[in-house]
Amino acid sequence: MSINDGKDDIKGPIKALRDHAFQVDASSNGDFPAPNGELKASCARVNGDNPFPDQHENGINWETISVNEAVYLLDRSCDLLLIETIVNILHKARQNKALFLANLVHTKLCSNGLEDNEVVGNHIVPMFVECGSVSCAQNVFNRLVYRNEFSWTSLILGYLHSGKLEHALHIYEEMLENNVQASSYTIVALLQAHAKLRVVRKGIEIHLWITKIGLEEHIFIGSALVDLYANCGLMLEAQSVFERLPVHGVVSWNALIAGYAEHGPFSEVLKCIQQMQLEEIVPNAVTYSCCLKACGRVGDIEKVRRLYAEIVWDGFESDICIGNSVIGMYARCGSLLDAQEVFDTLPIRDVISWNALITGYVEHGPAEEVLNLLKNMSMEGTSPNVAIYTGTLKACCEIGCLDKGRQLHVEIIERGMENDLHYVFRV
After folding, report:
1. Nearest Cα residue to 361 out of 331, 383, 396
2. How far apart are CA 303 and CA 318, in angstroms?
3. Residue spans per domain, the chain
4. CA distances from 56 to 268, 298, 336 (A)
5. Burial class of 173 by CB neighbour count within 10 A (0 to 12, 13 to 18, 19+)
6. pTM
7. Helices (H), 97-133
8. N or C: which end of the chain has fewer CB within 10 A?
9. Predicted confidence (pLDDT) per residue in 273-306, tens digit
């Protein structure tokens, strides 16, 4: 079975994508590379010889200037640019996620008829993707005369990032119809899409093909396969793929741990993190969040406390996602003093932080504290969501605070959230 026959699947670290135009191998660190010597050797001035030595334009080194300087100089430059210089600027915009620079560069390239250049065009698409504008990337892609695997895969990843998973798979179908060979990075992107969609059948088809051509032990593809099976609840398959990987990194460990935290058995989560540490793999915020989730599922407050001590030791206590998870765990277990203490130490609190603490007081009391938290939340400038309104209305009912209930009901109606409430307050 060829990749063109399988037409599908799975997940893995998006940062694993590499620019094959630069011939970067899969063992590098995961970011898009800057233009290298191979590209420099092949570049020439778009129109005429380069009068500026050392890859400078009018004495300006485009590789080292800041984004703001690049915008200022590009906006005022009427010199014809090297292809290499253009790619450097595209890379700079991509690195800095600077959409304003991306639009400026694109406009200038179009005005000089350079969008159709094979090298330039295939770097514009990933620039817009990483700057957060998939629609711009798609528009450029539609006009490209030459499309390589890099631009196809970049567009797939763009739709993946924006949550449009069906669009991502549709682009892959078009890629196959255009006889473009999928790379390992394309496979990783497809596995990610199918993991999120939890479509395991197609994933298994691709897994068979991957095994046939000997890519199952590829670190990124293998991690993507672990994530696919774990996300679909097939933990035996996820464990089997994981054990066959030649190297275990934090991404593959997190994929396995997340699966156990979601589908069980939850005891495997702590076993995994212990083995992970024995292999001298340092847990990150995702690892701890998954472990906290598992502890919360079994309601083991002591394990939460021990885990939080490790989190503090490793310096992750100020991470808002971990902090929110810890607050939620303590609150669900009824340990409101612990939950309040973690909440108070967070440098930044969002609506999830407030909701976790408020939910704890709604469930375990005192209900009066819910109204105090709502007041403090408003003073910090955070707007309540549906869950917070629901909990607060429930607290109002419990303490007989009818006036506050009416006030909140009016506020809910004004914000157009009445139909979204899971708890109906009747005055």
Report:
1. 331
2. 20
3. 1-202, 216-282, 283-348, 351-427
4. 57, 62, 62
5. exposed
6. 0.67
7. 99-111, 118-130
8. C
9. 889 989 999 999 899 988 888 887 777 788 888 8
